[in-house]
Amino acid sequence: MTQVDPGLAARHARLRRGYGGTPDPDDSAQVLAMPIVLHLPKTEPPARTALLEAAAAATIALCLDPRVDTGGPWHESFDAWMNGRIRKVARRARGAQWRAVQDADGVTVEVDGAQARAFVPCPVGELDPRIKRLQIGGTDLEHDAPEEPPPDLPLLWVNSSLDMTLGKAAAQVGHATMLLAGQLDLSAVLDWSRRGYAVAVREADSRTWALACDEVARGRAVAVRDAGFTEVAPGSMTVIARR
C-alpha cells in the first residue's frame, strides 16, 4: 500500500473544503490575491499553451507545498486567502525583472521552455515591490496549435469564445487546477504530485466546449465560473478541467 505524506493529505483536505465565507475587507488595499508572474522574454517568447500549462501547474504546486502547512511560513497568508474570494493577478516579466522575482516566496514551474511563478497570496496593497512594478496587461501571445493532449494528464479546456487575454487565462487555469485537485481522491493527487502537477491546456471550440459542459453536468469534470471582476461577465464558465 502506498504511503501518503500526512501533510499532503491535510493540504488536499483543505482544498476539498473549498473556499469563501469571509467577506472582503472594507479597505480595498487589504484584499488578498495570489500574484502569478509569466516569463515573457522580448526575443524568442514561449508558446502560449506551454506558458498556460506552467501557470496552471505552478498554482497548484504552491497550494500543495509543505510551506502552507499549519506552522509553516506560508500558512497564515495562504489560509486567509482560502477563506475569502480566490483572486489571482497575472503579470509579466522579462530579463532582470524575472530573475529578481525568483527571490520572492513562491513556486516556479517550467514547461517546454515556458516559465511561470505563483507567489504566496498577500494583500494587494502590500505586494512585494519587485512584483508590483511589473505590468499586468500589454504583451499577449499568439494562439498556437499544440498536438493532441496526452491521455495520462489532467486536461484543462479553455473557453475560446471568451477570447481571454493571456493574463486572464493564466489566472483561470490556476483556478481550475485548484478545483480539480479538490475533486480528485488523495491517491490521484499523490500520483499527480510525482509528475510535478503537469497538465494539458487546450482551447475548446464550440463543439468541444459543449461536450465539456456535458461532462460537468454529469459530474465528470469541474468548471471555473468567474466572478466577473475583469474581462468576462459574472458567472461565465472560463475553464473546464477533467482527469
Summary keywords:
243 residues; alpha+beta; Bit1; five-stranded mixed β-sheet; four-stranded mixed β-sheet; 8 helices; 9 strands; 35% helix
Draw up the topology in text:
Layout: H1 6-16, E1 32-39, H2 48-63, H3 75-82, E2 88-93, H4 95-101, E3 106-111, E4 114-119, E5 122-123, H5 129-132, E6 155-159, H6 166-183, H7 186-194, E7 200-204, H8 206-217, E8 222-225, E9 237-242
How many angstroms separate the termini? Answer: 22 Å
Low-pLDDT sequence parts: none
* CATH top level class name: Alpha Beta
How would a textbook summarize the main sheet?
5 strands, mixed
Please characterize this protein's 3D structure.
- This protein has 243 residues and is α+β, with helices and mostly antiparallel strands.
- The protein has one domain: Bit1.
- 35% of the residues lie in helices and 20% in strands.
- It contains 8 helices and 9 strands.
- The strands form 2 sheets. Strands 1, 2, 3, 4 and 5 form a 5-stranded mixed β-sheet that branches. A 4-stranded mixed β-sheet has the order 7-6-9-8.
- Helix 1 packs across helix 6.
- The longest helix has 18 residues.
- It is globular.
Question: What's the gist of this structure?
Answer:
The chain contains eight helices and nine strands.
